[in-house]
Amino acid sequence: MNNMRVAEHAGRIEAALLGSDAARSPLVASWSRSARLHGLDPAGRAEAQCLTDADFRAARERMGPLIAAAAPSLDRLFQAVGGVGCCVLLADPDGVPLDRRGAGAEDDAFREWGLWTGTVWSEARQGTNGIGTAIAERRTVTIRRDQHYLARNTALSCMTAPIFNHDGTLAGALDVSSCRDDLTEGFAGLIAHSVADTARRIEVEALRLAFPQARMVLVPGADRSAVLAVDADDLVVGATRAARQALGPLDDLPRPAADILGGTPDTLEAAERAALMRALARASGNVTAAARFLGISRATLHRKIAAARR
Fold first, then answer.
1. Are residue 276 and residue 254 in the same domain, yes or no?
2. Which residues of 83-95 are buried (b: 16+ CB within 10 A; e: fewer)?
3. Do 70 and 115 lie in a common domain?
4. What is the pTM (predicted TM-score) of this model?
């Protein structure tokens, strides 16, 4: 970008920060954070910050479970967008991409623009950008070309969604970026939808890996990514972001599934009756086999069944 265009970009941002949009536009609010909170100059030419090899390895180790959970989804997403000149990035909560999918033909261009593993893309370092702004605002964002705060990033278009842990905390961000100048607004919107959908699938898979012995329960009437992890004691021990949005914050897990989803009150009688019914179902109604499952005599099981039906 030549000096005149850099000056025009900086002037447009300054005018926006002084205008009425500063109080109501999410984009201008991000520009304001970049200028006033982080003290960045939109015309600045400082080199992007990159992690050292040791820091990068440590960050990868910390994020290992999410990287493993996300890998198949990253592969599928890249298959969908890689052919149109996009790369796929998985970043940590500090805005550092730790895993990447890209085509060799575009790798040199993306490396030049800093869309590479180990480069810091937080708002504090890069100003308004897809990864940093999605993390700062905890929502899916699209930052196209001159919507970026730093003039040096205005060749990029970034569609990014945050990813959340099973305890509701921020896990990282999923990004698809392009440096093509023919990426239309409509196509960017389709990519953003795919990114958000993929981020939710990653959250479900991460929940499965975090609680491999738990059963996954869909929240009735909610999106398919609204999933609860329920352990053998019928306690909800984890939940996806979508489940928390559907049911409330769920900050006090573990909690009985019946308290969250509704169901039979927790009494000893109800628990015993449920155990009896499960044993009979496993035994296909055979009382002798069900009694064996429960470790009681056939006569005792008959008495308990009669008592439960009264």
1. no
2. eebbbbbbbbbbb
3. yes
4. 0.86
